[in-house]
Amino acid sequence: MADYNGQNARSVLQSPSVKHAFSLSIFEQNLYWVDWENRHVEWCHKFSGSNRTHKVFWHNAYPKALKVMHPALQWSDPNMTAIYDFCLQKCSNLCLLSPIRARNLKQPYVCKCAENFKKVGQYNCVPDCKPTEFTCTKTYKCLPFWWMCDGQDDCGDGGQDEMYFARDACPAYPCKTSGQMRCSDGKNCIDPAKICDGKSDCVDGSDEGLVLRHIVNCKTYQCYAGQFKCQNSSRCIESKLRCDGRHDCPNGEDEIGCLQTVCPPNFHKCAGSRPHCVPTTFICDQQPDCLDGSDEPKNGGGEAYQIFPCFSSSYPAKRQCLSSQFRCSFDGKCIPKEWTCDKEKDCADGSDENACQNQGCCG
């Protein structure tokens, strides 16, 4: 920690248990941070580092932002108290102020529904979970069916999804990590992204609805986040395969309606008769990923060359990376800067992990 001008630098907390502090925030006397490796939200006294506490744990997410929300930070107006009280009595979920131009009406507020809820009438909200999700009746959370009986209270109500941890209510969880789907044989586990992908990853085919169709029915199954559903075959494919110039769905519906390929940020558009997108980190990595090889241009032509001029591996010093990338010392490969000092060697020579400061310090 330091003053705004960079002076008076000092360590607040130094401990081997602080693995990868990320996204700091300060409120009153406490310093808050997210630890990517421990997957905790933690806090301690902002000057002494004492009273270190952690309470929030993520199973599969790596949160990148942290914001403290507290009544002391919220705007208040004593004239709105009566409206606020009446609002709470009416709305079953969220109660928000109406736009300024509508506040002269009899109802200066509006009832809204949070994520995973749908509105019924003017004031009420009910859970709107997917057919393949489990609804927590007390906390109204929508959980993937494979989170049931995984040994963790995901509902946050004492364990409804774990049968409240009653003895022998749930079978033993065989998966090495949480968030995996247990095959119906009770022995094997698969990544949920493999559910209804057209291939039987479970020995008994339960991930493709070949058994226990009431649990996995690929016709009604809504694909995992980041996937596209092939309508005619009920198969789930990766979203990046949509409009990539190849038929990944059996009937080719993933290539229907692709008038123009528009690549998202940090992706490169491959040229040729079948345009598709590849991450910019694939450019100049000495391995062609585009069908036309435009991600490895060496002749000085084309859009990719103007942005990422690639040279032969004997001239790695001339390779240029974006300001948001790190250039590996050995072969000049460009990798995201976020991959540096993450305790994983992404460069062949490990140069992305050299000269890293002690990650066990927070301050």
Automatic annotation (TrEMBL):
UniProt-listed GO biological process terms: receptor-mediated endocytosis
Signal peptide positions (record): none
GO cellular component terms attached to this protein's record: apical plasma membrane; endomembrane system; receptor complex
Primary location group: membrane
InterPro entries per UniProt: 6-blade_b-propeller_TolB-like, LDL_receptor-like_sf, LDLR-related, LDLR_class-A_CS, LDLR_classB_rpt, LDrepeatLR_classA_rpt
Bilayer topology: Single-pass membrane protein
SS bonds (residue pairs): 243-258, 341-356
Stored SUPFAM superfamilies: LDL receptor-like module, YWTD domain
Annotated keywords: Calcium, Disulfide bond, EGF-like domain, Endocytosis, Glycoprotein, Membrane, Receptor, Repeat, Transmembrane, Transmembrane helix
GO molecular function: hormone binding
Entry annotated with the keyword Calcium: yes
Location in the cell: Membrane
Lineage top rank: taxon: Eukaryota
Protein name: Uncharacterized protein
Source organism per UniProt: Romanomermis culicivorax (Nematode worm)
